[in-house]
């Protein structure tokens, strides 16, 4: 029995989720996810190790012919990332979903687990299938399964509304991709990605790339194509948010990189498109994240930021191809692709951490939390690990991939002309700004949520989550640390992936020297931290430890928890300097002049996504208003509808007499 037959067996076995008892459903989907990872992971690993591509046909004929699958280095790399995230997600799900069992029935959970498995299957098939009809079919399957996962809490009207918004925008992306494939297939006679090679050889490359970029960019979440993402991620359960952010949006990145492997000209134009959109996405994404109060929505905006970082790497790679600079091309593509892996790790860790906070405190409102490091120390330290990694700080994995992109830009500046220097300098400044703002944001997040005093009763009574929810986070933490300390081991396999895009088949041994220095520096830094921790622990054991409340800033007789920085006040200065691009509305009623004894009041802020508000909601609201004006014709009275029919017949009669029809 070959691997494709085993994959078909997993698909058939998935139907059993609906028929087994509730207590067995989870273990069945766990077994199927592990089988899926073993079967497809073996294929992917063999491709990366041997360097030999695998291909074949799936015994499921379509009107256009048999479905052909192929696994090359790019597909193999992405398959391994998908499998790891799927495994950690399903391991985390058992503990997280426990509290929902009293609220939802067996069928609801069966549909959820079924959709989870098929999201994984569809993503892997997206990475394997090159033919247009088959690719679009599994792409649609990915959309439908993720839609069902997003609306897990379907009793909430807001969740259903967000799910429908997501579904509509994903179908806009679907039709754009359909049009792009129809253009290439109609001209070249070759269906799917393979037709791009013929098309790009005879036509300008950037217009068709732009069409694919918009279609795939909606899935990836580039600004201004991102409006579904900050809403869908917070609405979904934590493990679904982790999988969607960690790997599903990377299917958009995969699609863009797959198109880039066929590009033959217009490198500079395509590189500038990628750099411009990515820099805007990175800076705007982290800026919007800073002013958020909902933890999962904040993390969702950071997904947009990191998609921007990946795009900057890819854009630099294309600039390197345009200027015939293999060093810039290699470091740009390699850094961007390694960041695909790194983001899948630290972002899933952070979403799992957010889920643990929600399970323990029943809220994701940052201003209602605080002091959780005392109540949930393991979750706190694992979240801190993810926060340091996403901020691009050593010695963790986020630093490595960003360092590679920086290195490519700096090395490129040493050999390029004035025009390219300005482009590369702009990329460096954008990356530096993104990194600095990310550090600022996560000092806010960790400081307000985990340090200080609790701001609510639920936060003060929080308990650590079960070991089953800690294990997948610890597993990811080890991977984050391993990449940060041993980057060469994880970066070298990317040579085959980069070669598909950059035509740089091999790089000199000294190319890896900067990463070896990063590795040595990271190990020394980590040993120094361990030594300082051991010294402090040794000293504190000799002293009497006294616990007390956090200092209340000199206020006597008041709650110290109220005299702390909140997420709002921490980001207030940034809010002021970033307007009008980052819009935050204040909700507060000022005391009246004649109000001698003012009563209790509340103060709150609400941030708005400028693109969502101006480019989506405003036109949509005007369209709805226009429909309502037309709605006066819909009276509900039959005699009026008969009158409309007579008027229509009379108009047709007049037009026919006049010879117009």
Task: Describe this protein with a few key phrases.
661 residues; mainly alpha; 3 domains; two-stranded antiparallel ribbon; 27 helices; 4 strands; 71% helix; globular
Characterise this structure.
The chain has 661 residues and is mainly α. It folds into three domains: 1-191; 266-505 and 514-537 and 563-586, no CATH class; 610-657. Helices cover 71% and strands 4% of the residues. The chain has 27 helices and four strands. The chain has helices at 3-13, 22-50, 73-96, 106-128, 132-150, 157-188, 194-202, 205-220, 229-235, 238-248, 250-260, 267-290, 295-322, 326-361, 372-375, 377-390, 397-413, 418-450, 457-460, 467-485, 487-491, 494-502, 513-542, 567-570, 572-578, 610-630, 638-657; strands spanning 54-62, 65-71, 583-587, 604-608. Strands 1-2 form a two-stranded antiparallel ribbon. Helix 12 runs antiparallel to helix 13 and helix 13 packs parallel to helix 17 (397-413). The radius of gyration is 27 Å and the shape is globular. The protein starts with a helix and ends with a helix.
Query: How many domain modules?
Result: 3
Globular, elongated, flat, extended or rod-shaped: what is the shape? globular
Structural class: mainly alpha
Percentage of helical residues? Answer: over 70%
Q: Number of DSSP helices?
A: 27
Strand elements, count: 4
Query: Which segments are poorly predicted (pLDDT under 50) over 5 or more consecutive residues?
Result: none
The biggest beta sheet reads: 2 strands, antiparallel
| Sequence of strands across the biggest β-sheet | 1-2
Distance between the termini: 65 Å
Q: In what range is the share of β-strand residues?
A: under 5%
Mean pLDDT: 86
Q: What Rg is obtained from the alpha carbons, in whole angstroms?
A: 27 Å
